[in-house]
Amino acid sequence: MIRVGGYQGVLNNSIMAVFAIVVGLSSAQADDLTQCSQSFYGGVYPEFTNTKLDKNTQALCMDGFAVMYSGVSRTPLWSAEHLDRRRLQQAKTIDREDSFHEESRLPKSMRASLSDYSGSGYDRGHLAPNANMANRSQQYDSFSLANIAPQSPRNNRYIWRNIESATRYLTQQYGEVYTITGVAFTGKKTKQLAKRVLVPSHFFKAVYIPATNQAGVYYAPNDESERIEVISVDELTAKVGIDVLPVLDRQTKAQAFALPLKAGESADLPDQPVEEPTWLLFVLAIIEWLLTQLQA
After folding, report:
1. Which of 82, 95, 135, 291 has its CA 20 to 30 A from that of 36?
2. Coil, helix or strand for 281?
3. What is the DSSP letter of 132?
4. For the whole prediction, is pTM greater than 0.90?
5. Which residues are catalytic?
6. In terms of Cα–Cα distance, which of 53, 87, 47 is closest to 69?
7. Which residues form the active site (predicted)?
């Protein structure tokens, strides 16, 4: 016969053991993001202002970027990257090798599967794009379904492709940028793939330029309309419930930098003095000397 006191002691020990496991998992998740702090400006990662989004999430450090994955939507909520000229130059030497795969580090109950997307009519849209990856390991991680969300084909292949190119253009212009690419679920009704994967209502890409302390956000509905707008970090927070760049000052977050919609398009680039070529300066000096001789 088991005494009540003994049973209570075993029960208490079991509760404490479960609590320790839960705390250990939470610490591991926090440690994950500290291990890839280079992906975030100032090492500070996004914060949920809508705490409901934090339910059943898993932080993942990938090679070359970081992800906050949701077991509710079975999609990433955001992926973070630090881009610089050297990385993009290396990325140009890597040809694309598609290797979409389930994320083995996630519990099976949380994972999206390849079959979820089969015949769905949606593209498997990268948040951290393959074209930003500087080696095979980074490229392989970019094809993890933890970095993929259902995306409208026209949005993925035209609008989003353009802004990914524009972001690389900004990196070349300014030397480095930090990006947070994510999804939003703002519609009253949310579509599902295979009754498992939620289809985002919108995609966004926040871009911060340290050289000028300016930030802006591309924000587009996940449909075939080809609509896109550029908004501020604060506007994004109000729309999606995530402060993607909490370390920035209030003024930078409130003002939207005029991000280009295509690579090579003019944005609010800082005015650069135009230097005349030395040969032209030499010719002008000769002309000026000749004019003074004629006037003499």
Report:
1. 95
2. helix
3. G
4. no
5. 126
6. 53
7. 126 (proton acceptor)
In whole angstroms, what is the distance from residue 169 CA to residue 264 CA? 7
Domain ranges in the chain are 1-35, 39-291
Q: Give the model confidence (pLDDT) of 222-279 as tens digits.
A: 999 999 999 999 999 999 999 999 999 999 999 999 999 988 876 554 443 334 444 4
Cβ distance 194 to 214 under 8 Å?
no
DSSP at 146: G
The DSSP line for 132-147 is G--SHHHHHHHTBGGG
Residue 144 in contact with residue 66, Cβ under 8 Å? no
Q: Is 177 helix (H, G, I), strand (E, B) or coil?
A: strand
With 0-12 / 13-18 / 19 or more C-beta atoms within 10 angstroms meaning exposed / middle / buried, residue 96 is: exposed
Scan for tokens 């079959």, then name that residue.
Answer: 115
Give the CA-trace dihedral at 238, 53, 199, 254, to 10 degrees.
20
Kindly report, residue by residue over 204-216, the tens digit of the pLDDT: 999 999 999 999 9
C-alpha to C-alpha distances, 188 to 152, 191, 201, nearest whole angstrom: 18, 10, 10
Rounded to the nearest integer, the mean pLDDT of the chain is 86
Is residue 269 within 8 A of residue 169, CB to CB? The reply is no
39-291, CATH topology level: Extracellular Endonuclease; Chain A (3.40.570)
Question: Cα separation of 213 and 206, whole Å?
Answer: 13
Q: Token pair for residue 62?
A: 């990938």
